[in-house]
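Batch job 17 of 40 flagged for manual review because the log was empty.
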Amino acid sequence: MEIKKVVLAYSGGLDTSVIITWLKETYGCEVVAFCADLGQGEDLAAVKSKALKTGASKAYVVDLREEFVKDYVFPMLRANAVYEGAYLMGTSIARPLIAKKQIEIARKEKADAVAHGATGKGNDQVRFELTYYALKPGIKVIAPWREWTFDSRESLITFAKKHGIPVPVTKKKPYSTDRNLFHISYEGGILEDPWAEPPADMFTLTISPEKAPARPEYVEIGFEEGNPVSVDGKKLSPADLLRKLNDTAGRHGIGRLDMVENRYVGIKSRGVYETPGGTALHVAHRAVESITLDREVMHLKDSLMPKYAELIYNGFWFSPERLALQSLMDEAQKGVTGTVRLKFYRGCCSVAGRKSPVSLYSPRLATFEAETVYNQKDAEGFIKLNALRLKMRNLRGGK
């Protein structure tokens, strides 16, 4: 298949900066760069200019911040999704949106192929390409890291210098980062030793808990049908709400994570993450669910969450099974409305209060004081019925 035009998922970083030149040299094709604005805090006008100067025939910069939070982060939040007990998946959830928009641009530009800068060792190649194929089955995919002869980032830097391509990786920051409105990740380089503590000056979104304010700060988050809608009583758009919580939680050192995770391709990888606002939302969402969700619905959700999180981590956002699970999660959220008060203090995010106009929590039932609603004698028959099978097992010798 002759490749005349390629749409490249472009960040302006080392890999994708080199890829523009490499694609043109290797395929003799036109390269259209696409950069998604997910709130990474960069000068995207400069990124666009760099793409054009590096050889792209056209460069798109698309503001996806509101769509990212509303249609990707919030659905994941409604499911309380956490990978391997810790990771809130800030990188995982961004990839399907980037790939979706990239396919839209490929259709518009009548491109023959799409390309990305993910390595052949990581998860992102899977996330990008599963989305490409789900949305445009016949698309040609070019993954330079699986084709070219470069075997390290050092060799890429050498190529870049040879072609006059400016690169952001330096000896001062010998690791790679990925940032969006939900989080920032750090991996590679000096972080590849899982015994080595991350350098103190590496963190971007959070202050060190040791240097955080000595007095706690309280924040109230309002929810409607599982979605956060307000902070301290003020209604905010999804992106603005997350941005505000990032600032507030970040200055109290909330949301740092250092973990070794299992990549889908079978490699264990050490990653360091900052997810201040996301951590606060996750804690708050579970708190509002605690007083509004039926017990069995909550337990069913919790039992399905690891599978749901695994699907997102592995790149199956547009799979029928993820969509089916999402329908269940969203159905369960119809009564998840209320307000949660959080306490931020030196790296700790704790629940200080929760309330709801549709709460299932009854002080009259829960009290240890005198009441007339609950007949404690009813518990005797309940216990005996549940003990029946245990008695029968013992009577036959416990086998």
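Reviewer: the log was empty due to a logging misconfiguration, but the result itself is present. The longest strand covers residues 30-37. Unflagging and moving on to job 18.
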